[in-house]
Amino acid sequence: MTDLLVRGGRLPGRPDLLDVVVRDGRIAEIRPAGPPPADGPATVLDAAGGLLTPPYVEPHVHLDSVLTAGEPSWNESGTLWEGIARWTERKPLLSRDDVVGRVLQVLRWYVANGVLHVRTHVDVTDPSLVALRAMAEVRDIVRDVLDLQIVAFPQEGVCSFPGGERLLAEAVRAGADVVGAIPHYEDTREDGVRSLEYAVALAAEHGLMVDVHCDEIDDEQSRFIEVLAAQALRTGLRDRVTASHTTAMGSYNGAYAYKLQRLLLRSGVNLVCNPMVNLHLQGRFDAYPKRRGLTRVKEMLAAGVNVAFGHDDVMDPWFPLGTANPVQVALVGSLATQLTGMAEIAECHRMVTDRAAAVLGLGDRYGLAEGRPASFLVLPALDGVDILRRQVRPRYVVSHGRLVAEAPPADPVLHWPGEPPATVDFLRAADPRPFAAAPPARATADPRPFAASLAARATADPRPFAASPAARATAEAPRGGPEAGSLAASRVAEAEPHPVAGRDVTRPAEPVTWPGGATSAAVLSFDLDAEAVVLTADPSHASRLSVMSHQAYGPLTGVPRILSLLRRHDLRATFYVPGYTAERYPEVVGRIADDGHEIAHHGYLHEAVRGMSPAEEAAMIDRGLDALWRVAGLRPAGYRAPMWETTYATHGLLLDRGFGYDSSLMDSDVPYLLAEHGGPDARSLVEIPVHWALDDWEQYAYLPEVFGSGLIESPAKALEMWSLELRAIHEDGGCFSLTNHPFLTGRGARLRALEQLVELMKSLSTVWIAPAGEVAGHIASLALTPRHFPQPLID
């Protein structure tokens, strides 16, 4: 039986309405909105077009000290050091009931705010470990609602506190999930280094994660972050290690910060910034100008380092405010770190969701995807930016398939003189209100909507892509040129300018409308060139192991990472696969298809068609088709010419073989119908335009003596350029078609830049993100007039 049905919600970046079906505490199905399942759901929630997101994640809080502000006295100076002193006074008053009661109260606040995963630091510089043992009890009490991770945190030091090492080890035996440290608080730098070595070794021994209060001080000489990163790298713990606070980084000089940035990226260490509390605590010893006392969030994100935002304290000796609301934290973080571009604000929302989940190592226990735990939020919001700006609270909070919190609509009612009462939602009049009047769901009966139009073109040959006899005749035409009257001859004749066209170029593409209320479209595509692109240039490269390994990075390492990214964001993409790549990596192609992505044609050996006869080009296309059929049993709907190089015969050859679209030309920002020639009997197929500026090859490709200029651009530059292009195309109502290569973009920092771009796409609520085949299917359904692109005449 269906436990829960959430009807009519929207995923970030998608305009269509979806239903989420929950069974046995897991997401059983995410499907287009429609009638309820036949088995009759026990509970139905109406999302009313609201935004569906994973739950918030709290990566850094001190639950053992919550609600103790002013007990027994207030932190009047507002410094970190007086906070520690006030806490030292409060610790003797701790008891099991005291800790459990306060923590359960604040965890209820967290859940009401949509937080279902919490990492709490618990002070273990207490010989009785009363707070730790009470927190372990709380962890069991709340496990049906939220996930609680406990960090053994030595508040007063490891090496500088009597028995500190013993207490840390005892805390691990008592059930701590994560090992902590506070090296900048130790008596000497040597003690700080030793405390890190001990904590990391203890975690490695017990298979635990590490989360260190690191360099939470305004001293630019405090550089324990480099020690922690080196330990993470050398022990192999890598992204299981987190450096929290790192406020001293805001005072480092540029040269050292650049060196550190490279080390952090190599190590895989996560950073957690606590903007509200560190704005409050830091800079207390400064005159003017006063430092903000925050780590370098913007720079580290641009470098590809994972950064999350945490609340840190809720009404305790270090911070007298707070309501356990991560959206408030994200807003303050956005302002304090100057992440105020639209993509950057959207990234701040990710820093309390996806990025924070990475800090906790949640993996496939987190996210809106079929088969994962049914823990998610429904918010009356447009996107992540809207959530932060209007401080939107969740309408529904669902944990493991159960409704655990809800907030009725609470827009204020304005009684303006002379006007009837009216609600105020703090949206501009022109802003869409998808949660108030949702657009109709986009019906997609076939997972590849273009299939129906392709069926009319299919031949009777049992191999669905098999060429017709006329097309075979083209492929078999002699190299010296086709005979008069053959299909190949007619292709060559059609390459001449059509008489009515004269010397004029074709008219521009028509504006198009997009489905489901979208105002633009975006296509993520990946050209799986692998070794083919190198071998077609020079077959002798096959003997160069280093060159072959460079290209093999794409299918072996890049593709799994890309598939994981697409799963995290519940997106489908198009993979253009040369036939040779399919034959060499059949399992990789199978995994792509199994994940629901479109596979399209990209030549056989990534051949350039410049100088090819129509017969040779036809043979190349057929060989690629044959490989894809033998390896994956599929007939591709789409084609992308290797190196985007086509001839005036190409599109006729594609039409002969039942292709529905091509993505190789560059004369428009919107897809259109391309006629094979200018005559009245011309056939047409959809063209999805591309451009070099939206290709990672121009940014990253370099292989000595093979290809590239020798200049490898920063992912930050590529992200900036692509973000600007995305915004411009979105404003113009076009189709943003991005081309990436797994052997290039599949590398760590570059993929993180791509993920930031994806977040920007999703933050633009009226961008329709779809595979190229779906975009082509939509274009084919419109009443567009086919365009002909006549060949220029040269006198």
Describe the structure.
The chain has 795 residues and is α/β, with parallel strands linked by helices. The chain is 36% helix and 15% strand. The protein is built from 27 helices and 27 strands. An eight-stranded parallel sheet has the order 6-7-8-9-10-11-12-13. Helix 10 (326-336) packs across helix 11 (342-350), helix 11 packs across helix 13 and helix 15 crosses helix 21. It is globular and about 90 Å long. The N and C termini lie far apart (75 Å).
Secondary structure layout:
Elements: E1 4-9, E2 18-23, E3 26-32, E4 43-46, E5 51-53, E6 56-61, H1 80-90, H2 96-112, E7 115-123, H3 130-142, E8 147-153, H4 164-173, E9 178-179, H5 189-206, E10 209-214, H6 224-235, E11 241-245, H7 254-267, E12 270-273, H8 275-281, H9 297-303, E13 307-309, H10 326-336, H11 342-350, H12 354-359, E14 376-379, H13 384-390, E15 396-399, E16 402-406, E17 413-414, E18 422-423, H14 451-455, H15 469-475, H16 487-494, E19 520-527, H17 532-535, H18 545-568, E20 574-577, H19 579-584, H20 586-594, E21 598-601, H21 614-632, E22 638-639, H22 650-656, E23 661-662, E24 672-675, E25 684-687, H23 697-700, H24 715-732, E26 735-740, H25 742-745, H26 748-763, E27 767-769, H27 772-781
Parallel strand pairs: 1-4, 6-7, 7-8, 8-9, 9-10, 10-11, 11-12, 12-13, 19-20, 19-26, 19-27, 20-21, 22-23, 23-25
Antiparallel strand pairs: 1-2, 2-3, 5-14, 14-15, 15-16, 17-18, 24-25
